[in-house]
Amino acid sequence: MRIIGGTAGGRLLKVPKGYAVRPTPDLVRQAVFNSLGRRVAGARVLELFAGTGALSLECLSRGALHAICVEKSNRHAGFLRQNFATARLDAAGLEVRVQDAFTSLAQLAAAAQLFDLIFADPPYGEKNISRRSTSYAQQLLDDANLPNLLATAALFILGHARRDTLDLPEAWREIKMLKHGDTVMRFLTRRTG
Predict the structure, then answer these.
(1) Distance between the two ends of the chain, CA-based, in angstroms?
(2) Contact present, 120 and 48 (Cβ < 8 Å)
(3) Alpha-carbon gap, residue 76 to 15, rounded angstroms
(4) pLDDT for the residue numbered 20
(5) Pick from 72, 48, 64, 92: nearest CA to 3
(6) What is the DSSP string of the chain?
(7) Are the beta carbons of 72 and 48 closer than 8 angstroms?
(8) pLDDT at position 21, please?
(9) How many C-beta neighbours within 10 Å does residue 38 have?
(10) For residue 18, what pLDDT is reported?
(11) What would the pLDDT profile of 79-116 be if each residue is shown by its tens digit?
(12) What is the pLDDT of residues 66-79, one digit of tens each?
């Protein structure tokens, strides 16, 4: 696994052994960042369920202004910090919060923080035909704080399993969907009016 583009392009990223972290695959990240294009430069980024931090590091490598990575596991946050050091990016550009994603959303909303890009590629949910999803992806869509963290014209990029059928609440409008294998990446914006 590596950073695909920008100033740190080609640098290898470390991933914890085992199944506790499922990093967003290189091909999926490449498709996402090809779709984002110039939106990344100068962006304020939030990455939830950050794991290795690959999505934030890709943003910082491509000129994002600042990234906040939220990762509940202290061990995984250690890998994230190690990857950041390997990428040799500006230390002022990254903030790591070791806490639950939903706790962090509430705190960031209370502080009136705004982001241009919010990424989340949480652990996949199970197949849910004929019942509402209980996955982290669905919980993020249902979270009342998340839409309030998006700046004007900002995007929420959400990854989930193809088998996990999500309900899109009224607060969200989907503008694009990318599919690769079992991975679906949805580009969402806050619905206005």
Answers:
(1) 41
(2) yes
(3) 8
(4) 60
(5) 64
(6) -B--SSTTTT-B----SSSS--PPPHHHHHHHHHHHGGGGTT-EEEEES-TT-HHHHHHHHTT-SEEEEE-S-HHHHHHHHHHHHHHT--GGGEEEE-S-HHHHHHHHHHTT--EEEEEE-PPPPPP-TTS---SHHHHHHH-SSGGGGEEEEEEEEEEEETTSPPP--TTEEEEEEEEETTEEEEEEEE---
(7) no
(8) 66
(9) 9
(10) 65
(11) 899 999 999 988 889 999 999 999 999 999 999 999 99
(12) 999 999 999 999 98
pLDDT in the model for residue 14: 85
Close Cβ partners of 159 (under 8 Å, ≥ 6 residues apart): 24, 28, 120, 121, 122, 137, 183, 184, 185, 186
- Residue 72's CB is within 10 A of a number of other CB atoms, namely 18
Q: What is the pLDDT of residue 45?
A: 98
Among all chains, which residue has been given the structure tokens 């696994």?
A: 1
pLDDT of residue 9: 86
Distance of CA 160 to the CA centre of its chain: 11
Which residues, in sequence order, are CB contacts of 86 under 8 Å at separation 6+?
Answer: 11, 12, 13, 14
Structure tokens belonging to residue 149: 């963290």
Residues in the chain where the model's pLDDT stays below 50: none
* Residue listed under structure tokens 């652990």: 123
